[in-house]
Amino acid sequence: MAYDTLPEDSLTQSVMRRLALVWIDFEGRLEQVPIIRRLNAGRFTLEDYRALLLDLRQQVVDGGCWIARAASHVDAKHIDLRSRFMRHAVTEHRDFQMLEANYVNVGGAAEDIRRGRKNIGSEALSAYMFHKASQPNPFDLLGAMFIIEGLGSRKATEWGTAIRDTLHLRDDQVSFLLYHGEEDDDHLADFEKWVTRIVRTSEEGDALVRTAEVVARLYALQLEEVGRG
Questions:
Q1: For labelling alongside 27, which of 45, 148, 151, 223 has CA 20 to 30 A away?
Q2: What is this structure's pTM?
Q3: What are phi and psi of 140, to 5 degrees?
Q4: What class, spelled out in words, does domain 19-37+44-225 have in CATH?
């Protein structure tokens, strides 16, 4: 059966299977990132953690901004999806402050993390997200959500707990990761329902999956570049 002629449920399931393959590739790539390998091997240092917080903060600042921009490009026919983007922007637009607090709580200086600049991966990721968010009805950004929120849902608690235990930290020193481990589960709760709602053709499915592929690669690049300025 041709992809275009699949029943609605089968079309959704086809997209979900392709996204699952993107995730498997992404997860494998993450395991090869040097700072993640050190975390998994128990060789993660306080310097690694400060570098991770400093580099993530620069991209997280932009997160609420590109979500809000995406909302502004959704037309009135899809106002409920526009509302979803807006609620998401409100939820996340101050998350960078949690990163700053964690950084200060592990001995970093607030002015250092606030003056930090995006690493090469963060530059590429933010530029891509703002570009996609500026398109009319940028629904393929659900592919980006699948990766970014999936990272929070599937990895943040694992990484936050490992960092806390390895470095003997308190919960308030790893609260950004622990918070997203819980919060991002809710963001993905009705993801498949929205895929069914939005994806009506093979082209729309391809665009959503392609966005997930690009975001996965750029997010991994961001982590590969941690500490390199």
A1: 45
A2: 0.91
A3: -70, -10
A4: mainly alpha
Q: What is the 3-state secondary structure (H, E, C) of 151-181?
A: HHHHHHHHHHHHHHHHHCCCHHHCHHHHHHH
Q: Residue 155 and residue 207: Cα distance in Å, rounded?
A: 25
| Cβ proximity of 223 and 121 under 8 Å | yes
Q: pLDDT per position in the chain (229 positions), as tens?
A: 344 444 557 899 999 999 999 999 999 999 999 999 999 999 999 999 999 999 999 999 999 899 999 999 999 998 988 988 888 888 888 889 999 999 999 999 999 999 999 999 999 999 999 999 999 999 999 999 999 989 988 899 999 999 999 999 999 999 999 988 777 666 666 888 889 888 989 999 999 999 999 999 999 999 999 998 7
The DSSP 8-state label assigned to residue 50 in this structure reads H
> Would you call 128 exposed, middle or buried from its count of C-beta atoms within 10 A (0-12, 13-18, 19+)?
middle
